[in-house]
Each structure stands twice: as C-alpha cells, then as structure tokens.
Amino acid sequence: MRIYAVFVYLFLYAPLAVIALFSFSAGRSASDFHGFSLQWYATAAGNRLVIEALLNSLLVAFVSSAIATLFGTAAALMLPRVKPAFRMVFDALTYVAIMVPGIVIGISTLIALATTFNFLNPLIAGDAPGAPPLGFGFGSLICAHSLFAMALVIVIVKARLSGMDRSLVEASMDLYADPWGTFRQVTLPQLMPAVIAGFLLSFTFSLDDYVIASFVAGSRVTLPIYVFASIRRGVTPEINAIGTTVMVFSLAMLVVAQVLLRRQARKPAAA
Amino acid sequence: MAEDGIDVRFDTVSKHFGDVAAVDGISFALRRGSFHSFLGPSGCGKTTSLRLIAGFEQPSAGTVEIAGANMVGIPAYRRPVNMVFQHYALFPHMDVAGNVGYGLRQRKPRPEKSALDRRVAEALELVRLPHLAKRRIWELSGGQQQRVALARALINRPTVLLLDEPLAALDRKLRREMQIELQNLQREVGITFILVTHDQEEALSMSDTIGIMKDGKIVQMGTPEELYDAPVNRYVADFVGESNFWSGEVAASDAGGAAIRLGSGMTLRAAYSRLGAPLKVGETGVIAVRPEVIGLYPPGAAPRDLDCQANVQILNRIYLGDHSEFSVRAEGLGDLLVRLPKAVETAGLEPGAAAVIGWRGNQALALSET
User: Fold this and answer.
1) Is B169 found in the same domain as B199?
2) Which of B44, B62, B244, B318 is the most interior residue, by most CB within 10 Å?
C-alpha cells in the first residue's frame, strides 16, 4: 500500500520536480543538467515578450478575480433570500460551471462573444462612425475568467455563510446596527477568510489557465499562451524557469487559501 | 415612557408561519420593572412572542406596544429592547470590550472613546468581570460568556431586557447561581426583564409574573403563587409543580366545588380553584391533588377529620434529603405520589407495607381538562 502510494506521488510530482530542477541548469538543453545556475531566470526576466505576457496575465487575473469575488460574494449573500426553487436551479448551474471542462467553456464563450460582436459591431459602426469595433482581447479574457471564477467564489462563500451563526446577525440588529452596519461589522468580517480564499483561488485559476484563454484571448498573449507557443519551438531551460516561477507562486496562494479556509472551519468549534 | 406604567402590551397579537399559528391572538400587559416569564413546552409560542417584542418578527395581526409606542413595522434596530440569546451570540471576531461596547458604538452621534470606555468598564463591573475586557470570546467559560452577553445588553439601558432560555446551556449549580444573580441584577437596574424558559423551577424562582403558554395561546398568567395554588385547568396544574390527577364525570356541582365520579366507580369531592371556572354536571372534570397535601399513615393511625381516605400499598420510597417521595397503589385510585417532609414520622412506611392515605377536601382541586 505504501509503495503503491509512493509511485502515485512520483508519477504526479516527478515531472514537476524535474522541471524545477532543470530550471537551475547551467546548460542550454532542457534535458541535460550542467551544473547549478540562475541564468535562465535572468534570461526569462530579461525577455521583453515574457514580461509583457506576465503583465497581461497579472492584469487579467487581478481584474477577473476582483470581479468574481465581488459578484460571487454578492450572489452567495443573496441566495438565502430567494425562492427555494430558484435557488436550486442557481446552485445546480453554479456546480455545472465548475465541472464543465475548460475547453467547453472556451468554445462556448468564443461562439457567444463572436455572435454578440457580429450583431453589435454593425450597429456601433452605424451609430458612432469611427468607434473601434468590439473584438477579442482583455475584455473577453476577463469576461470568461471572471464567469468561471465567480462560481468558485459562490461555492466557497456559501459554505462559510451556511456555517455562520444566524443569531450573530440578529444580535447585531438587536444592538441598534442597521442592515448595512450589520453587514459591515458582523457579516463581512465573519465571511472575510472565505472571501480572500475565493479571491486567491480565482487569481491562481486565471494565472494558470491556458485552455479558455487560447480561445478568447484574440491577439493578447498571456503567460500560459506564451509558454505553450514557445514549447513548439523546443523546450529550453528558460521555459522551465518560467514554469517553476508560476508554479511556486500558485502553490503559495493555494496554501494561503487552504490555511484561511481551515482556520475558519476550526474557529467556530473553539468558540 | 407609557403613562400607565406598562412597558410591553400585546393586543390580540397573532403570528402565522404558513398555515401554522405560532402565536394565536394573545393579549397581555407587563408592568414596568417587573420580572416576567413565559413558560411552556417547545413549540408553544413563547420564543415567537419574545421575537415579536425584539422585532425579529412582525405580527400577522394585532399590535405590539413598547413603553406606550406602537412597534408594528419598526425593525429590531430601532426598538428600545435588548436580548440575551440562548447561545449568547457573542461576536467571535471581537474581544469582550468590543462586544460589550457594540450597542453604544451604533449610536449617532457615536459617543467619545473615553465615555465609551467608561461605560464598558461599568457594564463589566456590573456583571463582575472587570478583569476580562481584553479576552477573546472563546477563551471564556460558559458562565463568563453569559455575563458578557448580559453586559452587552444592559449597557444600552434598554426599556426591556429579553432573555431567551439564557441559562439552558449552563450546568445545574451555575444555573442556580445565575438565577439568583439575574434576580439581583433586575432589582438593581430596575429594567423590565422578560424570560422565556421551559424550566418551571427557573420561572417560579425568578419571576414576579408568569405566563403559561400552550399552542400559541396564554393559558394562564399570574404570580407564581396564583399559578401553583389556583391553576385554571389541568394543563397549568400539571406544568407548574407536580400533581396527582383523576379524571371522570362531574356528578354534582355547587358554589364551592364538585364531586367527580371516577372510572372505578369511586366519587371524589374537591373545591374549585379560586381562578378556575365551575364545572357542569355531566361534563368531564379532573381532581388534582398535590403530593405534599396527602398524608400517609400506618394502618389505624390516620386522623379522623380527613375527607378522603383510602387503603394503599406502598410501592417505593425515594429519600430526597429534606423530604421523601412515596409511590403508593390505592384501590379505586390507581398509583399516586405522596411527598412527606423529613419532620414526619415514617417508621413502618416501607415498600411492600400496607398504609392509609388521606387529604382534606378543600386541599384538592376540581379543574376542567383544558
């Protein structure tokens, strides 16, 4: 049993370890290790295309997770107040959004947006001649990413909300705090760990996503798109260095999110 | 403030949840500065009544007045009442002082920090926890959390303090201490307290008045003595203290009492409860006899002036320190409970022995079933 487990983990993590290891190689090949060096990190950091792709990725990740966190939290807060039938449909659709493969989301978003653009662009050209036509780029990327990430945030915040003691809200109302005061001083602080965890998970998802981005990014290049395009020209240790950086960054955020979610699960029991 | 000294008034208040009437057309008025309890089993409407006063629920019909002002449509955060919740509902993300000062911080304009700190210190002093201001909530014991919840409510000097089974989560000894403390606190601050409980002992020991509730209605409201000595029906007699009950057909009725024929053919006479309604001949009535008014004697030793006597066999005896409880079986009466104080001679009254029970007719009550 233990041996079996060891092989499973080896199979899962050995390739990642190899990539991380070779990112420190001094050689030019991604398959031979020639002594320790940080030169490929320097090369990646000096590559204008890499930096531009990274900045694009960070922008999309930040904006889309901010939107997802805002609207996802709002949706989770609203859900207990709507009719049960509507809530069931909404819940089901939320889980569907999480379970549907990225490629399906990518294609369907592409088709939906392309159709919308084809419908709107002639109208825009007619109403406001000279205005730039709608097209794929940051807008469509942020749109697709925030829609998916919103489902994540809804699920996480909803779990926290259902674990929250309803009498805390009543206690606050009883102590003269109006609904907004209660939200600001009691509900939001209670939800905060889940909100932050939701934001971090959304950010990680957006930063790492290739599949959806490849459909809706238009001419914009995000980091995963850049990496994927470079691989076709052969894997260099520079790609390994980029991959390792993204991996460490994502892992760090996942750990923070996990710690936040666990702490909040433990706290009510201790209180 | 109301001119008539009434702090809380319900006028034919109902609250429906779907088809269920949690509170069903109740009316009452509570005197300012009194300690009032709502007593009843779960689902009787006592908690809903409390929530109607707090403003967490709005009545489906009728009016709720606090200090003379109509509260219908007024939300909880604009009512001059504060509540101590069953599980305290202290804010876990604030320390003790943060919790206690919460109500004052919502005031507009917000009090200055020095005034706020002083009031918080006073409130903690009142509940004897001045040294715990900086503690986190989860570091406190159940009894301490209880006191913080009290301080958090009382600091606002509400017209009415609402207590929703506040002692249910405490162990027996601590509960007894808190009961006394709550009573003292109520006298000290002079605020109207309204307690909801299913524990009759708790209600009896603390309250000036008690409302016994059943199925959304108030069955009887009065002082603990009234409820105990003059219950209006079997439900109240059963809920407040303990009684032996026999039901049967009313055979005779006059101004003072009624005779009821039991299923066994035996007829028992009893006086009417001071606050109960007289029974009609032919309807079903109940005889209620408190276990402490029944005498238990060795054969031949019973006094001659007892109105009701029966030969019994002693089934069991439970020694309870200051008194003993006997369960006995009487011919025609079935099993009943007798309670004798320690001072009474109990030699020869052992399980298995034959004995005689008896009581005076004016100590038994003839009641209606409902």
Assistant:
1) yes
2) B44
Q: Name chain B contacts of A268, Cβ cutoff 8 Å.
A: 92
**Which position has the token pair 């050209």?**
A125
Structural tokens at position B285: 């009535």
Model pLDDT, residue A264 = 61
Instruction: Say yes or no: A184 contacts chain B, CB-CB below 8 A.
Output: no
Question: Is A52 exposed, middle or buried, given 0-12, 13-18 or 19+ CB atoms closer than 10 A?
Answer: middle
CATH for A234: 1.10.3720.10
Rounded CA separation B324/A78 (Å)? 60
Q: What is the helix (H) or strand (E) element at residue B15, kind and residue range?
A: strand B6-17
Question: Over 90: is that where the pLDDT of A262 sits?
Answer: no
Nearest CA in chain A to B156: A175
pLDDT at B2 over 60: no
Same domain? For B173 and B286 the reply is no
- For residue A270, the distance in angstroms to the closest alpha carbon of chain B comes to 6
Whether residue A269 has pLDDT greater than 60: no
**Would you say A53 and A222 are in contact if contact means Cβ atoms under 8 Å apart?**
yes
Nearest Cα of chain B lies from the Cα of A32 at a distance, in angstroms, of 54
Evaluate whether residue A187 is within a structural domain.
yes
Question: Does one domain contain both B326 and B225?
Answer: no
| Domain that includes residue A105, residue range | 49-270
State how far Cα A78 lies from the chain centre: 23
- pTM of the model as a whole: 0.81
Distance between CA atoms of A44 and A225, rounded to whole angstroms? 15
Residues 6+ apart with CB under 8 A from B44: B213, B214, B215, B216
- In this prediction, residues B340-354 reach a mean pLDDT of 87
As a residue count, chain B comes to: 370
Contact B89 A167 (CB under 8 A): yes
pLDDT tens digits, A25-53: 877 776 677 778 888 888 888 889 889 99
In a domain, A32, yes or no: no
How near does any CA of chain B get to the CA of A191, in Å? 11
**HSE-CB of B154 using CA atoms within 13 angstroms:** 25
- Answer for the pair B130, B124: CB distance below 8 angstroms, yes or no: yes
Q: What's the pLDDT at A205? A: 92
